[in-house]
Design brief:
This protein has about 90 residues and is of the alpha+beta class. It has one domain. Helix content is about 50%, strand content about 10%. The protein contains 4 helices and 3 strands, in the order H-E-H-E-E-H-H. The chain has a 3-stranded mixed beta sheet with strand order 1-2-3. The protein is elongated.
């Protein structure tokens, strides 16, 4: 999987021209690290890159699961999404 598809930037439109300049000047690849678990994008399914913070798909799902379970009773649809995600890692 290419690094462009693995890291999704929330500020892509705003900084697209800056990123192109950096890519042209930067011949070596630097991994993007999750601000929550510290893993690089090479070890996770996807990474969302925000302004000054990054979060991997696994940490996102943990956060979503926490927020859903905080209500003590996840909806059927929410439970299906959680089950489908976590089955991928069993």
């Amino acid at each position: 999987m290419s690094k462009d598809k693995k890291v999704v930037s929330l500020s892509r439109a705003k900084h697209e021209s800056e990123n192109k300049k950096e890519e042209n000047n930067n011949t070596s690849y630097e991994p993007v690290y999750c601000s929550f678990c510290g893993r690089p994008n090479t070890q996770v399914v996807k990474m969302v890159k925000g302004p000054g913070v990054n979060i991997c798909s696994e940490c996102t799902m943990i956060a979503v699961q926490y927020l859903i379970l905080e209500d003590k009773m996840p909806s059927g649809e929410a439970q299906k999404i959680l089950d489908a995600f976590w089955q991928k890692f069993d």
